[in-house]
Design goal:
The complex is a heterodimer.
Chain A: H1 7-23, H2 26-33, H3 43-51, H4 70-82, H5 89-102, H6 105-117, E1 122-125, E2 140-143, E3 151-161, E4 168-174, E5 180-186, E6 192-196, E7 206-218, H7 224-259, E8 261-262, E9 265-266, H8 271-300, H9 305-331, H10 342-352, H11 359-370
Parallel strand pairs in A: 1-4
Antiparallel strand pairs in A: 2-3, 3-7, 4-5, 5-7, 6-7, 8-9
Helix pairs in contact in A: 1-3, 1-4, 4-7, 5-6, 5-7, 7-8, 7-9, 7-10, 8-9, 9-10, 9-11
Chain B: H1 7-23, H2 33-36, H3 39-55, H4 74-86, H5 95-108, H6 111-122, E1 128-131, E2 147-151, E3 154-165, E4 172-178, E5 189-195, E6 201-206, E7 215-226, E8 230-231, H7 237-245, H8 253-273, H9 280-308, H10 316-339, H11 355-363, H12 374-385
Parallel strand pairs in B: 1-4
Antiparallel strand pairs in B: 2-3, 3-7, 4-5, 5-8, 6-7
Helix pairs in contact in B: 1-4, 4-8, 5-6, 5-7, 8-9, 8-10, 9-10, 10-12
The chains are: A alpha+beta, B alpha+beta.
Chain lengths: 371, 390
């Protein structure tokens, strides 16, 4: 029994965390937050992540990747969440995963090395406005007018992370028979337009992707199973980011409440605060366990994977939601100000919590699996 | 990550599973069977079962062979917990002795104590009670007032203990007694091993809100105990008690998950029976419980890993207690909320008996109190894990 990270995985986590602390700290994050018209994609950060292999983690070695698994990838996601780091890491990793899972040998050779090296930014567009995150919420139609398999996509997807800087968008679309599939759309394709949706989470950029008879290349094995597999990976890595946000929010709150004095004593000595912090510590720890387990389940194709993903998605959303709300409350007035960093964590948690399925959607999925 | 057990451990699972299949009567697997017996009948059956299990080599899984144990690994203990619950084997009648007293005796007992206490306990010839809580010493254990006065080679003990598990069936009781007159708080306490079969010891059942009497009260009136029957040094009872409580749990989360997950499935089955399984709010409620139970399972694997690595769990066991006890209690709250009026009826239909559900439901209120209340556990997590000031 070994339910833990290996020394190599711990070291990988430290490398990313230390890089962020040295090279992209909260002041740098603030720079991105306070430049809402910027592209939210600082190149120093991107290059650093690429140098550490953070973008290559899931890409097979034959395509210049590290050939590691979701357990390793969640290590990176957690570190980025803890650092409230901006940039299209998750978007790019998921685009590469789509191609790894469902692309032809030719598609893999063409795209994976560039995505792993950070030369191409990727993203995924898997759901439309108001839709569910289970393949039923797709609002893009695929046609093949020439009957040659080459696709033409029409419709829209939203919200799409970092569509503003993506060179490649993996779009989920339904064909004439209503079957979902995955398609590659390149930046600059005819009929493609990206509209900035101005998320309140300044650590990300999010857009709506509109497609009007846009040429697209279907992924060779990009059927409904590939859509489901991609959504599951998105859910787990997004949950890992949320867990990183939650743990860091809690640690910062605890550190502050050890020092902050009122009524002549540190406010952290009051049980009203202690008990809340203790409950959050338990909740965040359980969410960390759940993400680790779900990542391992995906890596090993465990028969309980669907349930494990739902548990992780639900628990991580709730933990991040609660820990970041508590951060503002237990920092008191200062935590409510623009100058303080609490809102970075709070807004990132709330933007991400519903992505790839809200806590409620994950729980409904779990009920469906066990009832 | 490697969530498998070793080949040797899996071999142990196969042996145990086979033995359990041959030795568990069909009627024991019926839902509510144990709840349908009266406390004494249940106790005697379990006592006999435990002796049989020990003879077959399936007790003291992690205990050293020299003490009659199996010398097994933490993984085997987890497998033991999982398999016995899966097979509907009854809970041991000697929990407090086996979990707490035995390892403490192994650690600090005299050679005589080791010889006299451990073997008979393992064979269930001697049932041990724990005499810690008192009417004035619940969460504040250092407030114990039961006093012992030296009289020759003996201590003469007077006072009262309460919330004593198996008080009516116990043979001996490991008891925190204030043996230094006028001492305060953690000082001057000794852990005395008192024979309950004597005129100065009277046990009375305590009827719980469920109607059952798993707990009792124990009254000491000039009870006598030889001074040599002190575990640890005289006057160092607090230290002995802290060592004893440190043996709590370990990898038992695997077994707890197995038990609670079965209860979840039974509650879902009742929700379906009474037409509540399609209600979106009910589904959220139940799925939320399952999320917490699954987290308990992952946490158990984490704890098992730490145990195998020989790491001290320390204050982390408070987190384990919070997770299992709150998840278990929440599950039974969900039962009430989801089933609504039907949940409150023992016989909502002629062929449906919810009595066993009510027994669990009402029992669930106790688990966040005993063994360190949730409030005490939160203080421990906040102070010793997070480092918040006292």
């Amino acid at each position: 029994m070994f339910f833990a990270l290996t020394e190599e995985q711990e070291a990988f986590a430290s490398t990313v965390s230390e890089f962020l602390a040295d090279r992209f700290d909260l002041e740098a994050v603030r720079g991105v937050v306070e430049d809402p018209d910027g592209d939210g994609h600082p190149l120093t950060l991107w290059k650093g992540l690429a140098d550490q292999g953070a973008l290559a983690v899931l890409v097979p070695e034959e395509h210049d990747g590290l050939g590691l698994g979701l357990v390793d990838a969640q290590v990176v996601a957690r570190a980025l969440g803890a650092g409230v780091a901006p940039g299209p890491w998750l978007a790019t990793v998921l685009a590469a995963e789509a191609i790894r899972l469902a692309g032809s040998a030719e598609q893999q050779a063409r795209w994976l090395p560039a995505l792993a090296a950070g030369e191409t930014v990727g993203t995924v567009a898997l759901r439309g406005e108001g839709g569910a995150w289970d393949g039923s919420g797709i609002t893009v139609d695929a046609n093949s007018p020439e009957g040659d398999g080459a696709g033409r996509l029409s419709g829209s997807a939203s919200p799409v992370d970092y569509a503003n800087v993506a060179g490649l968008i993996v779009v989920a679309a339904t064909d004439a028979s209503g079957t979902p599939g995955l398609y590659l759309v390149e930046a600059g394709a005819s009929g493609l337009s990206v509209r900035d949706q101005h998320t309140y989470d300044g650590t990300a950029r999010v857009g709506a992707v509109d497609l009007a008879d846009t040429p697209a290349e279907p992924l060779a094995a990009g059927g409904p199973d590939a859509v489901t597999a991609l959504l599951a990976r998105g859910a787990v890595l997004n949950a890992a980011d949320l867990v990183g946000v939650a743990r860091e929010a809690l640690s910062r709150t605890v550190a502050y409440d050890r020092e902050r004095t009122q009524f002549g004593v540190p406010v952290g000595s009051f049980q009203a605060i202690k008990h809340r912090m203790a409950d959050l510590h338990v909740a965040v720890t359980m969410a960390e366990h759940a993400v680790l387990f779900a990542a391992h389940a995906l890596d090993t194709d465990d028969p309980g994977t669907a349930a494990a993903v739902a548990v992780a998605g639900s628990k991580a959303s709730d933990a991040a939601w609660e820990a970041t709300g508590a951060m503002i409350q237990f920092f008191g007035g200062i935590g409510f100000t623009w100058e303080h960093e609490a809102h970075f964590f709070y807004k990132r948690a709330r933007r991400r919590a519903p992505l790839f399925g809200s806590a409620e959607e994950h729980r409904e999925h779990l009920a469906a699996l066990t009832f | 990550m490697d969530l498998t057990y070793t080949a040797e451990e899996e071999q142990f699972r196969t042996e145990l599973r086979t033995w359990l299949a041959e030795n568990i009567p069909e009627e024991w697997t019926r839902p509510g069977y144990w709840a349908s017996l009266d406390t004494t009948e249940s106790f005697e059956k379990r006592r006999e079962w435990e002796a049989r299990k020990t003879a077959a080599g399936f007790s003291g899984i992690q205990w050293p062979v020299e003490y009659g144990g199996r010398g097994g690994t933490p993984g085997m203990k987890a497998i033991y917990d999982e398999e016995t619950i899966r097979a509907h084997a009854p809970q041991t009648v000697n929990t407090l002795g086996l979990t707490f007293l035995a390892p403490t005796v192994m650690a600090i007992g005299t050679p005589e104590q080791k010889a006299e206490i451990i073997g008979p306990m393992l064979r269930n010839e001697v049932i041990w009670c724990q005499g810690f809580s008192e009417p004035g010493a619940g969460s504040d254990l250092a407030a114990v007032a039961t006093r012992g006065v030296r009289d020759g080679d003996d201590f003469v003990v007077n006072g009262q203990k309460i919330w004593t598990t198996n008080a009516m069936h116990g043979d001996k009781i490991f008891t925190l007694v204030r043996t230094e007159a006028g001492s305060e708080r953690h000082k001057g306490i000794s852990m005395l091993l008192i024979d309950m079969d004597q005129p100065g010891v009277e046990a009375r059942p305590l009827k719980q809100m469920s109607g059952a009497s798993e707990f009792g009260e124990v009254f000491f009136t000039d009870a006598r105990v030889p001074a040599k029957d002190c575990l640890g040094e005289i006057g160092q009872g607090w230290r002995t008690a802290m060592l004893l409580l440190s043996f709590e749990r370990g990898a038992s989360g695997v077994g707890q998950y197995t038990e609670f997950r079965r209860q979840y499935d039974e509650i879902v089955a009742e929700a379906k029976r009474f037409g509540r399984a399609d209600d979106p709010v009910a589904r959220q409620e139940l799925a939320r419980c399952l999320v917490e139970l699954e987290c308990l399972r992952y946490h158990a694997m984490h704890i098992l890993t730490r145990t195998e690595q020989g790491k001290d769990l320390g204050a982390e066991s408070s987190m384990t207690k919070l997770q299992w006890s709150e998840a278990f209690q929440d599950l039974w709250e969900a039962f009430e909320k989801v089933l609504g009026p039907e949940a409150t009826l023992a016989a909502p239909r002629p062929d449906v008996d919810l009595t066993p559900f009510h027994a669990q439901d009402h029992w669930s209120r106790s688990v966040t109190i005993w063994g360190g209340s949730s409030q005490v556990q939160r203080n421990i997590v906040a102070e010793r894990v997070l480092g918040l000031p006292r």
